[in-house]
Design brief:
Radius of gyration: 19 Å
Order of helices and strands: EEHHHHEHEHHEHEHEEHHEEHEHEHH
CATH architecture: Alpha-Beta Barrel
Distance between the termini: 25 Å
Number of domains: 1
Helix content: 40-55%
Strand content: 15-25%
CATH topology: TIM Barrel
CATH class: Alpha Beta
Strand order of the largest sheet: 9-7-6-5-4-3-12-11
Number of strands: 12
Number of helices: 15
Largest sheet: 8 strands, parallel
Shape: globular
Structural class: alpha/beta
């Protein structure tokens, strides 16, 4: 298993899981951590202990120590605009950890969170595996929680974490909100203009890229083609015009100056309706070869990670996927567990107990 890799050796992909952080449980598509690697539940004391063990540990090859030292040398106080405190090795953009992942033939897990509890759980699980991680917020949570609040929590958690952590804005179609999040301290921004014409997609993406690079060391993700909802997955996967054109992908990356790239290859958001969804692995591999060749310049992103079969994930990584997005799994696990607990405890009105619901603690 490659050290530092979230998705490397894969097993048990289709089971749900949860991780306990502090007194609460973290529901989560943490099956990507927990069931791939058999991560134990993490209590408050375990949370601190895992960090202590990380600081004192190496792998058989000594890879963990060497990677941690290399990250420490790379991260400077210029990582986040107007933040003299951002000298900690944990605050990174997505590109720098994805380049390492692509070279090491693994993928960095990117998890969409909707609250503080989930954010802590994702980080605790990553610490347990000595793995870099990308925390993602969709546009709605970033607005109702507040970008400044999310960035403050991210920085606070990262301040004591011994792993590289990126804060990413996911699928944002609003240029001004992209800029707002960049100004606030997000370290990776995804401008999603994929529903626009090709030329307009280039224009909007380049505007965000130029802005973020000017603000500071913020990487930018863009998308070409259609990453559908699962209800349209088969139709989109079979429609050549909705998937990323390999030659056009090269031009798109060159003209926009993108840092990381999400080509549409047939994966979808949501829970797949078929056991073996149609995914164009060869298309991803061809795009990776054309863009990166023998040197990783623009790492590739795989959207729609929830529920993909184990062999699919291995193949996607083999073809060049270096960031693996999971969102739906976390939402479903959290809502299902809370619903079950509330239904069984109709006389209780204690939010803390809902957060600590037994259904959120144990893997199914």
């Amino acid at each position: 298993m490659a050290a530092g890799g979230l998705v490397t050796e894969v097993g048990g992909m289709m089971t749900h899981g949860s991780v306990v952080a502090r007194e609460y449980s973290i529901p989560a598509g943490l099956w990507l951590y927990r069931h791939l690697y058999g991560i134990p539940k993490v209590s408050e004391s375990g949370h601190k202990e895992s960090r202590r063990q990380y600081n004192n540990s190496t792998t058989k090859e000594g890879v963990i120590t060497s990677r941690r030292d290399s990250w420490s040398q790379k991260i400077t106080d210029s990582r986040i605009q107007n933040s003299q405190e951002a000298k900690h090795m944990s605050i990174v953009n997505a590109k720098e950890i994805m380049v390492e992942a692509a070279k090491g033939k693994y993928a960095v897990g990117a998890f969409n969170i909707t609250d503080l509890v989930q954010m802590e759980g994702v980080v605790d699980a990553a610490i347990s595996k000595k793995s870099p991680v990308i925390i993602q917020t969709s546009v709605k949570p970033s607005k109702f929680l507040g970008v400044d609040v999310l960035v403050a929590i991210y920085r606070t958690i990262a301040a004591s974490a011994p792993i590289p952590i990126c804060l990413h804005l996911d699928h944002c179609t609003e240029i001004e909100h992209c800029k707002k999040c960049a100004d606030a301290g997000y370290t990776n921004i995804m401008i999603d203009a994929s529903k626009q014409s090709y030329e307009e997609n280039i224009r909007q993406t380049k505007e965000v890229v130029d802005y973020c690079h000017k603000v500071g060391n913020i990487s930018v993700e863009g998308e070409l083609g259609t990453v559908s909802g699962v209800e349209d997955q088969i139709k989109v996967a079979e429609d050549e015009t909705q998937l990323a054109n390999p030659k056009q992908a090269v031009e798109f990356v060159e003209r926009t100056g993108l840092d990381i790239f999400a080509p549409a290859i047939g994966t979808a958001h949501g829970v797949y309706k078929t056991k073996n969804p149609k995914v164009d692995f060869e298309r991803l591999g061809k795009i990776n070869q054309l863009i990166n060749g023998n040197k990783i310049k623009t790492p590739l992103v795989v959207h729609g990670g929830t529920g993909l079969p184990e062999d699919y994930i291995k193949k996607l990584i083999e073809m060049g996927g270096a960031k693996f997005n999971v969102s739906t799994e976390l939402k479903r696990t959290m809502i299902d567990a809370e619903y079950e607990y509330i239904a069984a405890h109709r006389e209780e009105y204690d939010p803390g107990k809902v957060e600590a619901a037994p259904g959120r603690h144990k893997p199914e």
